[in-house]
Amino acid sequence: MTPPTTPQIGNAVLCDGRLHIVTDRQKRYARDTDEFVYAVLFEDPQFRVFALERDLRWSDELGAWYLWGRCLGPEDQQAIVELRDRGLLVARTSRTPTNAPAGGEHLDLYLTLVKDKPKGFLTQQLEPVRRGNPPPPALLDAAAAFSARWHGPHSDGYADPDDSPSTTAGRRATP
């Protein structure tokens, strides 16, 4: 399947840990940059998100668009921070404790730790660890799955969305 070049009305977009549906796409004039840009509105039953089309990326693995650096919900981000602080989840060596995941990590973290898991999976799996017990096998399996992805390139640039190590991953929306 050839990946789409631009998001269309009805396409799915992953943002803040939830799949939204594109409901509107408009061309707007950005006075501060003196250019025309496309803006996309995507919604789910609880939230509406308005973003620039150029900030969206396509993921073949997800089968949907995603907003770079905003794939994980707040609860999942906090659980990932705690997992990394406890040494249960691989992180870059320059990471400072309590730092949230970098933008380029979001998609890989979502795909291995959140997608196809029950809501609140990471938080529930952390409960025994917080009480001083060993991590549950499901948590160790999910962490190992992310570690396996860690050795390859990130879906997009690590901290800069335009610094992609791969030309096929993280295809950017083009007007």
Total discrete domains: 2
First-last Cα distance: 20 Å
Strand content: 15-25%
Structural category? alpha+beta
Question: Using DSSP, what is the number of strands?
Answer: 7
What is the chain-wise order of helices and strands?
A: EEEEEEHHHHE
Described by strand count, sense and barrel closure, the largest sheet is: 7 strands, mixed
Describe the overall structure.
By secondary structure, the chain is an alpha+beta fold. The protein folds into 2 domains: 12-69; 74-150, no CATH class. The chain has 4 helices and 7 strands, in the order ββββββααααβ. The chain has helices spanning 74-85, 106-114, 121-130, 137-150; strands spanning 12-15, 18-30, 35-43, 48-52, 56-59, 64-67, 171-172. A 7-stranded mixed sheet has the order 4-3-2-1-6-5-7, with no helix packed on it. A hairpin with a 4-residue loop joins strand 2 (18-30) and strand 3. Helix 2 (106-114) runs antiparallel to helix 4. It starts with 11 loop residues before the first strand and ends with a strand.
Topology:
Layout: E1 12-15, E2 18-30, E3 35-43, E4 48-52, E5 56-59, E6 64-67, H1 74-85, H2 106-114, H3 121-130, H4 137-150, E7 171-172
Parallel strand pairs: 1-6
Antiparallel strand pairs: 1-2, 2-3, 3-4, 5-6, 5-7
Give a concise summary.
By secondary structure, the chain is an alpha+beta fold. The protein is 26% helix and 23% strand. The chain has helices spanning 74-85, 106-114, 121-130, 137-150; strands at 12-15, 18-30, 35-43, 48-52, 56-59, 64-67, 171-172.
